[in-house]
Every structure is written in C-alpha cells, then in structure tokens.
Amino acid sequence: MGNQIVNGRDASASPSKNADRDRLEFGNAWAYAPSLESTDHIRIPARHELFIGGKWQAPKSGVYFDSTSPSTDEKLSEFAEANAEDVDLAVQAARTAYDKYWGKMRGSERAKYIFRIARAIQEKTRELAIIESMDGGKPIKESRDVDMPLSAAHYFYHAGWADKLEYAFQGRKARPLGVAAQIIPWNFPFLMAAWKIAPALACGNTVVLKPAETTPLSAMWLAKIFEEIELPPGVVNIVTGAGATGEALARHPGVNKVAFTGSTDVGKKIQALLAGTKKRLTLELGGKAANIIFADAAIDQAIEGIIGGIYFNQGHVCCAGSRLLVEESIHDLVVDKLRDRIATIRIGNPLDKNTDIGAINSRKQLDKITRLADAGERDGATRFATKCDLPAKGNWFPPTFFTGVSQSSVIAREEIFGPVLAVMTFRTPEEALEKANNTMYGLSAGVWTDKGAKSLWMSQRLNAGVIWSNTYNKFDPSAPFGGFKESGFGREGGRQGLRGYVEID
Amino acid sequence: MEVGKAVKRVIDRVSAAEWQPPKGRLPVGKTYKMFVGGAFIRSESGRTFQVSAIADVSLADPATVNVPLGSRKDVRDAVLIAKNAQPAWWGRSAYNRGQILYRLAEVMEARREELTQSLVRGGADKTAQSEVDSAIERTVYYAGFCDKVAALLTTQSPTGGPHFTFSVAEPMGVVGIVAPPQPALLGLVSSVLPVIAGGNTCVAIASESDPRTSVLFCECLATSDLPAGVVNVLTGQAADLGVQLAKHRDVAGIDLWSDSNELRMQVERDGAESVKRVTTHDTMPTERWIDSAVGQGLGWVERFVETKTVWHPVGL
User: Which residue of A466, A475, A492, A505 is the best one to mutate when testing the B interface, meaning the one whose CB has the most B CBs within 10 A?
Assistant: First the structure.
C-alpha cells in the first residue's frame, strides 16, 4: 500500500519536491513561559443535583456519575444521573411552566428574561470560561473569546425576536410548540445550550435540556444564572445523564419537539424513534467538510483558514474542514507551509493562555481518533504530526495531517472529530466539486480563491448548509447554521432558526 | 356511492341475439401508462391493476381499464431520472420555470372538460368541476411564485466582524410525493407544484383510487414545455411505492398524504436511515384542498428547500 499512486502522485514520496529548501527552524522559540489562568476563585461543589422546576432535586435514580477534567484526569464533581422518572418530572415541570405562564406571556416580557440571561453571562464570562476549559479541555483563549461571548450573543439576539415573531414568517401567525427536549454534545457545552435554549424560549416554548455526560458542569452554572435572574420555575429544566437519559427524554410523550446535536448515528436513531409520534425534530449532526483551496487563492490567508478550520477546538467541531482539497499545482507549497505552521501550534494545559490546542475531551474520543489516524496510515497515506511534548496526564493528540489520501480512505470518509486533516488534490473546479460533494454529509465547506465569480460558482454547487468563502469556522447568532443530507435538518440562528420552534398557521 | 373506492361495475353480458353495434363509431380507448423521464411507460414488472369507473360518463374507455402496477425497480429508475434532471431544472432562470408552469396552466385549461369528466368517472362528481378549476388556478399561482421564493426566503445576516453573510433557499434535490387518494387531481397538483417551484424534481405516486386522472394530468405535463424528468408519476400501491421512496438514499425528502398510521410510521422510520426530510399529513376533504388559505402558500414551498448560508470577508 505504501507506494500506491494517488492522484498521479507517489504517496510514499516526500510531499515536498523542494525538501532541500531552507526550512524554518523554530527550535524552542515557541516554548512560551506559561501564563496560567487562575482558578483560586472557582468553587466547584462536590455534587450537583438535577435542576427541575426551579429547584435542585436529588435524582429518583439515586445514582451519580463523575465528570473528570480531560487535561488532568482529576474528578471535578459528581452529577445526578436522571432516569425515566426524573425525566418525567422535568417534562411535567416544563409543561406546567408552559401552560401556566411561559406559553402565554407577552413576547416583550419573555424577551426581558432572555436579555437578563445574556447580561448575566457577559458578567460571568471569565468564571464560565474557566470551568468550561476545566471540564471540557478546550483552551481558555477559545472558551473566553469564542464560546462565552457567542453564547451571550445568542441569548441577546434571540431575546429581540420574542416580540417580533409576527414579522418573521411573512405575516403568518407563529405559535409555540410546547415542551422542547434538547440534547446537546460535549464539544461546545455552554454554547450549544445557548443555541438550543435561546430560540426555544424566544418562541415561547419551555425546555428540558440534557447536557453531555462528559461536560455537564457549565450547564449547572447556567442553571444558577436562571435562578439569579429569576427565570420562572420550570421554564428551563436540566437533567444530567448519558445516552439512556437522552433516550428517555426523546421518548417522553409529553415532549412536543426534540432538538439534537451530535453524531449522525445517534441522530438517525432519534429520528427513527420519533417515527409516528408527530413530535417535531431538528437535527444537527456530523460533517466531513471539504476545504477547497485554488491556486489563485491568497495562500497565507488560506493556510490560516486551514489551520483554524481543522485544529480549532481540538478538531471537535462538526463543521471542521477535515478534508483539504488543494489544486494540484500548489500542493507542495501548501504542504510545506502547513508543516511549518503546525510546528508553531502550542498544545497543552487548557488554562494556559498561550495554548492553541487543549485536551481531547475523553479517553473514548482519543481512542477513536488514534484508531482512525492509524487506519489512515494503513490505507497508504503519509502522516505528519508535530513533535511536541505532551503532558503526562490527560488525553492528548498532536495536530496531524495526512498527504496522499485516497478518496476511499477511511480518513477521507469518516468523521474523525479530532485534529486530523486529510489532504487531497484536484485539477479542475469540477473535480473539486465532485470530490467535495462525494460524501453523505453536507454541513459546511470552505472555498479559497481570489476570483469572485469562481467563488460564487462553487458556493452555488457545494451541497452544504454553510459555505465559508475565503474564511472558515465563523459563527454568529444572526447567521443560520445547519446541514444538508445526513448532516441533519433544520437551522440554528437567524430568522430561519426560529422555524424549528414554532407552528405556523 | 362512496368516493375513493373503486366499485366493480357489473358488465352486462348480452347474447348474440341482443347485441347491437355502438351508435356512431367504436371509440378508441386509452392505454394508461406511467410518466417517467418525459415518456409514457409501462411498469418494468409488466404488471397492472384494474381500475373501474365509479360513474359512467361518455369517455372513450371501457368501464374497467388496466393501469401499470409500479414496482420497486420503477421507483429506482424514476428517482435516478429525477436526480439527473434536477441540476438543469434548478439551473434555469426562475422566470423561465415560471413560464413553463404558466404554460402548464394553459394546457390544463384547454383540457378542462376532459379533466372534469375523468374526475367524475373516478367518483368526484359534485366537486369535480371546482376541483379542476382550482387545480388550474393553483398552477397559475405557482407559475407566478417561482421567481418570488428567493425574495421571501433569502436573508442577510449582520454578522460580527467584516463579513458579508447571506442565506439563500436551495432545492433539496429529489422529493418523493405520495399523493392523497382524493382529490385525485388537486391533491397531486397541490403537492407537486410547490416542490418543483422550489427547484426540486420529484417522483410522485398517483392516487390509487383514481390514477386515470393523474395520467391525464401527466399528458398536460408532457405538452407543457416541462423538461423531461422534472415530474415523474408512478401508478400502483401507495403503501408499497411510498416505502420504496423512503428507503431510497437519493430521495432527499418525502411528502406523504395518507390516513394510514402504519404507512406514515414506516415511511418516517425508513426515511431516518438517510436522514430524510419527511412530512406526513392526514388527508383532507376536497373543500379544504380547494381553499387557497389551506391548499397553497409559501409554507408548501418552504418544506422542501434548504437554507444555505454563505460567508465572505469584506476588505481591501
């Protein structure tokens, strides 16, 4: 397999035809002195109960599970595992809140509660960012500069819709659905809660939220914010637990809508589970995005876009640009630049303000990334990874890319959900398009070219819900986000995102 | 007589002594075929099912006719044809698509009497005329909608940072439609037109109880400048063909009109395997379909379009 010809290139050869050119040697130049975010003021309770009907309630299951820090392997706290009985109580609380006040409340009043949530998040950004990085492993500069500000923005944005829904659907009257069951992933715990809760509340629904079992901590802080801003009891209920809790929630007959973000496999199961129930469903599932770079692109900007596209948040991003399609004539140049660029990436303690890549979220995910990357090598691709020192404890995977990847290789087809990039080549825009669309996924894509007409031509033909043209991984509450094909259906954000939380007359 | 159920008519057998030649001339009956890729075809299975007239009107056909019994292979062929026809259909200008639909209305108007008679034959009787008129009106409505959808569904997002970000509505691709048994014409027209107005192509399963009117509608399509493969109509058992559509990976969405909970559940469950956009509905009385506040609108188009958001930096 090692010397198979891929795209007319010898995959086993060095990716660089000018390997003897002057290489940049960084040596220890990037070994920054640590700049640790202080955690002295963070008090994490030893145990967290369920947040149901505005009260902290011990689980009927009597069971608690641990959440550990993926960067230290230390236990952070334990969390109640909600069983079907607990889920039932949460759905009942949400129903009562919906029937008694939230569903009937004037939009302008609902709006003010949601504005309050946004403000409280802004005020607690630092603390929230720290616990998010502790629990999930993402670098503090990301939780501080991306997750928390965007979360606040999502509540702020949707608050403003609550009293303007009559404009959102061309004069058609919009009514809330009732109780929304929302199941969110571990890659952006606090931000995904915002994406789900904000539009649901703005449209007049009440919520039962289930955070992921490896990252429940920031949702507890969110519940404290709900208490603090005096959100009426039962409007948002939070039940912690793993897959069984999520299934009990999706199955519950008192739920009117299910919103799920996570893997395509689980998404399909939920969709099948809801067959015949008349529950509304939106799914935001996996991706295997193509990041397409043409020879006429601004190369250095594109390199930054490629790096951010795949290594942002350890590659734990459903819209990560995990397939790099490079126009053949600039393949060697791009690969050289990528090698230089990943050498500068700092991996390590998430609470270090210098850190670019933090810890892999869980041991299970690390094993999956390792297995898939090894399979890529077995499929004949050539691996490049940074040779940086990794901390002794915790889950780590160095930024990695593969060249000479065939279209049929597992690393070109499967979602890895880690810092692993598959590099492939193309000769014509048509070929790039064909390869980019050759996947069951359709969440996002990137196009790098200086030609406006070509960029729009590609954008019109790429089968993906989000196209980043000369940029990548940009998010905004006003911009709809969501997939084509098996990346799910429904949108989050923008006017389109409201559609998943209303019935239209 | 119950609407929607084919009633087997007792054919009077006469002895040779009693037989009289028909008055005037012997009419030429029609061979009913499915409409796929712009051609009228038999089922690859070679099988047919019988449809009998519920009310007799002076059409050429005998009281009972044979209609193709579409098969799984017919579904696969039709889906492939629809898939291949979709990019070119969406590639046409919205104005052009609108003109083609308007041409369809013109053709339907010219065959208004024939469509009405066919519905009466299928048992629609009292509502037949208003159903046909409504189908023509609805076609004109969607003809004028093709180039308005973008204006109503496109948004621009005031995203943070120097970006120009816009979201457009794009077709999903191939949509499978299981038309309601009744109204045989208006149900098919109302579910097909918004799907193709949004730029999709479709494979529709015609009313099982009155497939003949659907075939007549296909004859309108065939003479309306609609490119081949944009609308494909199969006849046969809705329960069987609907499930085949749900299982097909190249079908992006399904619109199912049926009162069978079992069928709805199966289509939704099978559709989940490829994350299909499935909408299922109870059937409605003809008056509801005729009501323009219910039977048409932007929401019908919206069901089968995708939002695509495009970001581009702004700068020198």
Answer: A466
